[in-house]
Amino acid sequence: MSDDVAAEKLDITDELIAERRAGRPGETPDDMRAWMRPIVYVVDNLNLWAGRIICLLMLPLILAIVYEVFSRNMFAILSQNGMSETAIAWGFGPTLWVYDVSRMLGGVLFMAAAGYALMRGVHIRADFLYRGWSHKTQATVDATLYMALYIPAMLFFTWVSAEYWLKAFLTGEQASDSTWAPILWPARLAMPVGAFLLLLQGFPELFRALHQMGEKRAQKFIRFLPVYAVILAIVTAGVFFPDVVPLGDFWNGIFGEGQSVSKPTIGLIMLAVMLFAIFLGFPISFTLIFLGFVFGTWGANFKLATFLMTLQTNSVMLSDQLVAVPLFIFMGIVMEQAGLMERLFQAVQMMMSRTRGSLFIAVLFVSTIFAAATGIVGASVTILGIMAARTMNKSGYNVRLAAGTITAGGTLGILIPPSIMLIVMGPVLEVPVTDLFRAAIVPGVMLAFLYLVYALGRCWLDPDMGPILSVEDQPETSRFYLLEVVLVMASLIFLIWLITRGITDGFGFPLGALVVPLAWIGAMYLAYTVLDRARPGGFYFAPLWYEFFMGLVPPTVLIAFALGSILAGWATPAEASACGAFGAVLLSVLYRKFTIPGLYDALIKSLEITVLIMFLVAASNFFGAVFSNLGTPKMLTELLLSLDMSPVLVLILIMALIFLLGWPLEWVPIVL
To answer: Is this structure's pTM higher than 0.70?
Structure first.
C-alpha cells in the first residue's frame, strides 16, 4: 500500500460504496453528442443541488430529537425531586411533535435524495460478473436495462406516487398513529419529487452508457429511441388509461386475474427473473421495483401493485426505528474525522510494542471500538490498512495474516451494536431492535476475541509472522511499565463498572449516571498529571497513555451511553443515535477538528449511505409484498415443513445460503 496516502484523506464510506462516480457532476467527454451534453449537465446539477440541500435536514433532525430527550429527562429529574411545577413552568416535558417531525424528516432524507445517489453512483449492484466484462459490454447491458427496466419503473413510480400525494393533499389526510396527528402531504411530497428526480437522472446515465459502448452500437440505440418513446407512451397510456387506448384491453387480458398460471408459480418465476436480473449487474433496488410492478400486475392487477408500492415506500418513510440509520452513520463519520481512530491505534501499538503481534492487537482492538461507533461493515478497513501497512512492512509482519486481520476486523461493525444491519433487520423481522442489540453484544465481542486469539496463536507458533517491534520503534516508558499497565487496566475496568452501574440505577441522585463516570475520568487525568510532574521513585505514566485515553475514553463513553440508554429503556434507537451524533460533533469541537466544510462533508457522506440502504429497504419491501401476495412464501414454507427437517438442519441450510449469497451480494439485499 502506498506510503503517500494520508489517513485523514480517506473516505470512511469508500468500503461500502465501491461504485461511487469520481468525476464532477455534469462532466461529459468532449466527443459525447452535442445534444446529450446539456441534458447531462442540467440533470446532474439539479440532483447535485437537491442532495446538497436535503443533507442539511439531518441537522434539524438531530436537534429536534436531542431537545425531546433533554426536555423529557429534565422533567423526570425535576419531578422526582418535587419540582414538577418548576419543570412545567420552564417548558420541560415530553413533546407531541418531535416523534412525527423526526420520522418525516428521516423519510424525506432518503426519498428526495435518491436521484442524487444515482448521480453519484452509490446504489448497490451485484457486480461480481459485471466488473469482469469489457467497458463496451457493461455499457450495452446498462443501456438495455435502463431502457427496459429503469425508465418504465421510474415513470410508473412517479405517476402512482404523485396520485398518492395528491390524494393526501386534497383530503387533508393526517397521521393516524400519533397524538399530534399532523397532515401528511408535506412529507409525502418527497415521494413523487424523489421518483421524478430519479426518472430524470436515468437519461444522463443512459447517455453515458451510449457514449461508452462505442459509435457503432450507440447509433443503433439512438435510431431506436423514437420507436422506444412511442412504445413507452402507448404502454403507459394502456396501464393508466386502459379505456382510452386499445392496448389497455390487451394489457389487461395478458396481465389480469384469471390467468392460467397459478400465483405461487408466478412467484417462483418472479424469484428466478430477479436473481437473473440482479446478477446482470444492474442496481438492485430499481430491478426490484420494476419486477414488482410487472409480476404484481401479472399475478393480480396493476392497481394492487401500485397500492403495495406506495404503501411500502410510505411505511419505510414513516418508520421511527429506521430514523436511527442516518444518525448512527453520521456519528461514526464525525468521530472518524476527529482523528480518534489514529490516536487510539498508535497508542495501542506503542502500549503493546513489547508483545509479539502487537500490530494485530492494535488493529483488532481499534476495529472493535469503532465497529460500535460506525455501525457499518468495513468502515475502518482502509484507514487501519494505511496506518498499519508501513509499520507492518518495516517490522517484517506476514502480509497475508496482516491483510486478513484488517479485513476481518472491518467486518465487526455489522454485528457489534449499534449495528446498522440490526436496525434494518428489526422492522423486517418484526423484532424489537433492542432485543437484537442485546443478542448481538456477546457474539460480537466473542468474534473479536477469537480473531485476536487466532492472530496471536499464529504469532506464537511462528514468531516471524508478528515479530516484536524494534527497540527504536518502542516508546519510552518508566522502569515500572508493568505497574503502569496494571493501574491503567484497573482504572478502565472500574470505569466500565461505573458506567454499567450508572445505567442500571443512576447512583441514586439526579444525573448520577453521567456525573460519577465523568468524575472518575477527571480523577484519572489528575493522577496522570500529578505523577508525571512528581515522578515519585522514578514512576510516571508514559506519554502513550495520554494518547490512549484521548483516543479510547471519549468514544467509548459516548458509545456506552448511546447503547446503554437503548438497552436500559431510557431512549429509543432514534433518540440514542441523535444524542450520539450530537455528542460526536461536540467531541470534534473539543479535539479542535470541527470545521464547517468537515461537518458538511459528513452530512453528504451520511446521506449517500442512508439512501443506499433505505431506498433498497423500500424497494425490497415492495418486492416482498408482491411476492407474499402471490402466495409463494406460504407454498415454500409448506414444502419445507413437509420435509420434516430438524431445526438444526434448517439453521445450517440458512447459514449456508447466507454464506453463498455473501459472495455476490452486499449485506443489505441478503437481509431484505
So the answer is: yes
